[in-house]
Amino acid sequence: MAGSTLRRRRWPTAVLIAAAALAIGSVFGVPGNGQAASEAAPANTASPTISGTAQAGVTLTADNGTWSGTPTSYSYTWSRCDQNGNGCSTISGATAQTYQLQQTDVGSTLRATVTATNADGPGQATSAPTSVIQTSGAAPTNTAPPTVSGTVQAGSTLTAGNGTWSGTPTGYSYTWGRCDQNGSSCSTISGASALTYVLKQVDVGSTLRVTVIATNAAGSAQATAVPTAVVTAVPTPISNGCPSGTGTIQVGDISSPARLVIDQQTVTPGLVTPSATTIQTHFRVTACGGRPIQGALLYATAVPYNQYSVPPEATTGADGTVNLTMTQRSGFPAARRQQLLVVFARARKPGDPITGGISTRLLVSFPVSLRR
Question: Is residue 161 part of a domain?
């Protein structure tokens, strides 16, 4: 009887405990259902800030501030406000973390609104206004004149140098002018408004000047380079087919009656033996009294054929030389007592007939030893 009474007295206590457990579960979620409790959207705990000088032409940067809720991304809106930071209006297209101040911002303040987002939604906070935006100061002033570089010859490219400027220019533009031989009486060249200018035949006998216009938010200023030397025509070959001057000749600059000459030839190894599975022949092509020819095509093959492979034509370099590698074939040696490897070599101008134009042909020989 006493035990039955005790059990009846404990039953309300058990009910209260179970009710409390259900209440706790409603707050923290149902155990074992695999879902965490929902987090709140980001909340700002320290306002965004703006860094950068409040002056036209300068770039401002928005700092995100600090947030609860672990944001996963941020987006930005910039607004232009009155001098007290009120009456703000959104600046169209200004949605990056940075904003370059424009002349239209002068006299206003700016605010940046940062939107922080996580899986539960976005939160927003706006910075304090900047100080009143000032003008960028004076327009650019030239402190060292522009320059012009490049060969002053028809077909060559001239390049303008900006010179140096105060006022921190944010951009440059160019105007090229054609002048008399003294750099005077200049006239603007239509369409010549790039950093570079390719000299034309019409420029021959004239000088050129470039005017550089430097711009910042406060305005622009211009300065003009000193005139170039008088523009010359492209040298033409003289009657013997050779261009004037000294040094390397481009193969395209010579013509008949000039002829190419193969004036050097060597082989590596210096003694050709049965063990020389590959050899490298070296040739030098010249013309017009021994001047190196660049761009000539050289062909070489051993005679009789099938002693060594025939490499493709190769192009001579600035020193007039070229190397061709040949691989030994079954036809070597061509005779039981062969003492020389005879090689036929031909140099020609690209586009000329193989046996015509200014081409040349030569038979050369290199020592052979079959004892090794």
Answer: yes
